[in-house]
Amino acid sequence: MLRSGMNDAGKPTHSSSTNPYIPKGDGDKAVQAYISAMPGWKSALGKEIGATVEKAFPEVRKQVRWNTPFYGKDDGWFLAMYCFKNYVQITFMTGSSLDPVPPKASKVEGTRYLDILADEALDREQLASWVRQALELPGRQI
């Protein structure tokens, strides 16, 4: 692997968990590069997650840091996603304050996760509800 996260052919490389190595960057272009590099079915899911967030909050801020796309507002970040071998994980920075609380606990106080497997559909309505709720809470600085 080259330091930039690109192979000799100029395509992104991936971690053993299948998460794309994408250079850090601000804005939609960096996040779209991450989503495009998500392997197989995960890329379509990444597009669906991004579209759902944008529909709920068209002014969303975006960035990629630590090979992870983040979605936020002026006061901080409220959502991120990450590829694992068998699932895509959505991170809710203020997840313990959402109703219903996303199902998976974190070691980080307040953070909750939703893991989506290949054969599971994204509940767009629930995701949009969580995004709208997160917009009412302080964002998290990273």
Explain the overall architecture.
- This protein has 142 residues and is an alpha+beta fold.
- The chain has a single domain, classed as Aspartate Aminotransferase, domain 1 (Alpha-Beta Complex), CATH 3.90.1150.
- The protein is built from 3 helices and 7 strands; from the N terminus they run E-H-H-E-E-E-E-E-E-H.
- The protein has helices at 28-37, 41-56, 124-135, and strands at 25-26, 61-65, 68-73, 76-83, 87-92, 104-105, 112-117.
- It is globular and about 40 Å long.
- The mean pLDDT is 92.
Supply the key terms.
142 residues; alpha+beta; Aspartate Aminotransferase, domain 1; 27% helix; YdhG-like domain-containing protein; YdhG-like
Short structural summary:
Helix content is 27%, strand content 25%. The protein is an alpha+beta fold and 142 residues long.
In what range is the share of β-strand residues?
15-25%
Q: Give the class-level CATH name.
A: Alpha Beta
| Oligomeric state of the chains present here | single chain
Low-pLDDT regions: none
| Integer-rounded radius of gyration | 14 Å
Domain tally: 1
